[in-house]
Every structure is written in structure tokens, then in C-alpha cells.
Design brief:
By secondary structure, this protein is of the alpha+beta class. The chain contains 16 helices and 19 strands. Helices cover 33% and strands 23% of the residues. It has a 5-stranded mixed beta sheet with strand order 1-4-5-3-2.
Amino acid sequence: MFNLPENNIHLAAQATDKQQAIEMAAAALEQAGYVESGYLQGMLGREQQTSTFLGNGIAIPHGTLETRGLVKNTGVAVFQFPQGVEWGEGNKAYVVIGIAARSDEHLALLRQLTHVLGDEDTAAELATMDDVKKFRAILMGEAENFSVKAETISLNVDTTSLLTLTAINAAKLQEQSAVENSFVSDVIGSPALPLGNGLWLTDSAAGNAKNALAFSRARNAFEHNGKTVQAVLTVAVKDDAVNETLARLLDANVQEQLLTGSQEQILAALNGEELVVNAKPAQAAGTVIGTFTLRNEHGLHARPSTILVNTLKSFEAKITVENLTRGGLAVNAKSAMKLVGLGATKNHRLRFVAQGDDAKQAMDALAKAFSDGLGEGVSAVPPAESTVGATEKNEAKSDEGAEGIFVLNNEHGLHARPSAVLVNEVKKYNASVAVQNLDRNTQLVSAKSLMKIVALGAVKGHRLRFVATGEEAQQAIDGIGAVIAAGLGE
């Protein structure tokens, strides 16, 4: 998590136009020691290439790749313009975040910011707030008012393992920067507390960075030590602000929603909001699914995200996208804010789902946009294919890619110890490696994440498919095959 000193936040600022706002941000970055003189030209150059307006009244001006060498330290300078600054195309920015970042650090930084700024009400509140401490707390996700986030809810998990549900929750909390490694290891190794009716609770006294709650529910109930398991709640507690939410867990109506409700109903129940039962939506006229591999050297940052949005906004189809490599919920593919929040880097796989009369045309336009490099220079690759229905076909393959399918022979499956051995093997290679459990039909997840490996729920006899890209892709696949054949330390 990046540091944001209060003196880097400038409330009630005034600027006559976009250029002056960017000049103010650049001057603040230079004064704070984040950049050298000349970075302003890079920020203005970036703005000429593609607008850095993300939506919700938020703009994130930053330098070009050519001026990245002028960045001394990663940091941000935040300016609030209560009167708004015209940012082009009818957009008005109220919060401008000047960014200085080396390498791909900006992607993690943007992902953290967009988790907060993606909420319209929060962005509107920041536009006029006059309390710098509260402003910073909200921007950093440290606000006193605690609420459960949609990103931490996992439903219909195909597992019969209490540990798997707990591991999924721990990974979600870690993605939200709510817990440290000590929390994850402790919560995985400690017994869960049964709340009754198939609900279980896990937590840890160690490594709590901020208040957060993650919830995972199995597709079907199962038994654990003679007791029913349907769902697991994992809680990170930093202060008393979470107590009201914890008290709701004892309410029978809340428990009912946790066991049977939709994501929206679960969020409403946990956050103390009025429960709304929505009618089942009508079936879309057509559904087209396409999976594309991101080839952009610096990931899905502001410029390629804007290209994607501009590609899709002319289509009527409803289009969502999820990052298969990192995991997480599907988001609106027509929102630059949501796209940046995916945290997608080079070689990540993005799965798009389009629904509507022009869904096929939208997916064809996406394929061309990815093939063209999303407005940036990348090695030419053939466009990814898309299919109508609930399945997807081949994606664009990397020339440096390799795959392997291996059968797990460990008597007790892919639990913590063999998972750790596998992760350590994968980390040896200069390659991006993803893995999926073919027998459970899981998504591809990072093979360098212990939590995501455990969450695959792999047992003896399951087939694991590994996909590697990068300079040492084949070496990685060969090494993974060898370590699995050797028993993963058992």
C-alpha cells in the first residue's frame, strides 16, 4: 500500500482549466521529491495522447513512458477542485490525482484507488469535503464507517473443504490490503468457529491492517467434523467500527440471507440496509464470450483502458469483464475506472461477456482492439476468438507460451504443504504461470499465490492445467511437472 501524507492533499483548490490543474499537480510532485524537473511535460504529453479522466469526477494525470526515468519515488499529489475543472468531452474533474510511479508500480496504486473511487457516492463526497483527515481516510480505505464490499463476496464455490472457503476469504482480504501475511497463515492454521445453520466464522488476532469482512458460500452444503458447512465468514478487525456488522451475524434474518441470498441481498444484510428482492432479469437477446490475453508491456493502465471504453461505448450490448489471472468479480467494461481497477498486467487473461443484439459486433471490435495493441506498440498477435453461449474457445497464444496438464498424486490433495512447495517451484522461473483445476472446472489463477492454489480444492487424481508465458515458460512447465511427479515434498 502506498503512503499518502496529509500534506500531499490540497483541498479547495482552484484552476481555470485542465492545463493549470496538471501544472499544479506536477509542481506538487516535484516539491515533494517524487519527480525531477521536466516531469510536467510528460504529464501534458500523456494528456494529449489520451484523456486521463476516469469517470465519477476523477482524473489521474501522469507522465509518459519516456518521462518515467524522471520519477525518483512513487507517490501522488491530490487536488480537490470543488467548482470542477473542464477535462474535455463534457467531463468535469473534481478530484485530480497526479501520479508518479516507476515501472508497473502505478497499476497496484491505481487498483487501490479505484476500489474507493469507483463508488459514485464516495467520489461525490470527496468533491466537496473540507476535512483533510477524513478525506485521506476515505481515499485510503480507512474511513470510520465500515461496510462490506462486493469484491469480498464469493458464491457457488464448488468445494467440500472448509479450508478452501477460508483460503478464498483470506485471499480476498489480502487483495483489499486489509490483512498481512501473518493473518493469512494464522487463519488457515486455526480452527473455524461454527455459528450454527451451516455458517462458520474465522479470524485472527495477528496481521489486521484494517476492518474488512469476506464471505464465501459453497455450492452445496457438506459435513466437517460432524457439522454442516454452507458458508464461511472471515473477519479482519482493526477497531470497534466493525462491531455493528458482527452483531448482525446473530440475526436470524441476516443468517438466512447469507445462506440463500444473492450477492446484493447479502451485502444489504451485512451492511444493515433494507433488503430488496429483485425480479429475475429477462434473458439477453444474445450472449457472446471472448477471452483475450493482454500484451501491453505496462498493463491495463489509463491509456489502453480508455481505448477499450471508446471501442465499446458505441454498442448497446451490456458488456462485463473479469481478470481470470488475478481473480475477482466481473465489472462494467464500459467504465475506465472499473477497467483500471482490474489490476491487469502483461499476459493476464481478460474474459469479456457481451449481452444484447449487437454483442457479436462488440466482441469483434474487442478482438481487433486487442490485436492492434489497445493504442500502444505491442508484438502482433492474432485476434482472440469469441463464442456464442456459456463457453469460450481459443484465445490468442503467445509465441513464448507453454502448457502442461499433470495429475495430482498426493494422498491428501493440494493442501498447505504441497501448495507451498509448488509455489516455491513456480517462483524460480522468469515466467507468468496460471493454473486451473480441470476436474472442478475452475478459473485460471496465479500459480504464485499460495491462497489461490489451496482454493483450487484439488484432491488426489485431479488434473491440473498450467499455462506459462514468458522467457522461461517451457522451463517452468518442465519444472512443475517434475516437482508434481516427485510428490510435492510428500
